[in-house]
Amino acid sequence: MKAEQSAIPSTDPYGIFDEWYVEARKTELNDSNAMALATATAGGAPSVRMVLLKSYGAQEGFTFYTNAQSRKGQEIRSNAQAALLFHWKSLRRQIRIEGLLEEVSSENADSYFHSRSRDSQLGAVASDQSRPMADRTTFVERFEEAERRFSGGEVERPAHWTGFTLTPQAFEFWLDRPNRLHDRRRFEWSESGWTDTLLYP
Question: In terms of domains, do 101 and 130 share one?
Fold first, then answer.
């Protein structure tokens, strides 16, 4: 078989991410910014769920927002390591990112909170995310109470509603190729910069 070159370049991983993400924004029909977020308890018990990427960059990392009193929020605060996974089926690509999490500033949390739709803001006020709920009527009533409380004024961001930024320590890019001869490259960060290697798929 003729030797093939990797289709994933040995360059800056942020540049590769940006190129793939821009393409995904054009081709994925729903939530191209959706990513699986894997966290773990202080004891190492894992859990995973989908969240939405809200901003990213080489200087700022990868930022999402959530209720810090939720299961994921509690796990983040007890074990500030996490992994992200983007999977774009239309492009036959996926990206894994691993790193450390840090809470965003109150100013950034306020700014993003008030950029959301008013109903989303009220929903965040009404929800005790991840906690047991007797019935949906209770949630609806809490939402309606929040509507009355903030009627005619700005919705106050709950102190526990915040954001977290993941600073990557590793990227792993996967690209579908014919005959299951897929392309896979991993980047790891050290004080001397990014190093990378091809991996068997």
Answer: no
Range of the domain at 173: 13-111+162-198
What is the domain count for the chain? 2
Q: Express each pLDDT in 13-56 by its tens digit.
A: 999 999 999 999 999 888 999 999 999 999 999 999 999 999 99
Q: Residue 102: inside a domain, yes or no?
A: yes
pLDDT in tens, 88-134: 999 999 999 999 999 999 999 999 999 999 999 999 999 988 889 88
Residue whose entry in the numeric block shows the structure tokens 């047991």? 132
> What's at 167, amino acid-wise?
T
What is the token pair recorded at 81? 């390591």
Of 77, 116, 180, 184, which one is the catalytic site residue? 180
- Tell whether 41 is covered by a domain: yes
Whose structure tokens read 């809470």? 103
Residue 180 annotated among the catalytic residues of the structure: yes
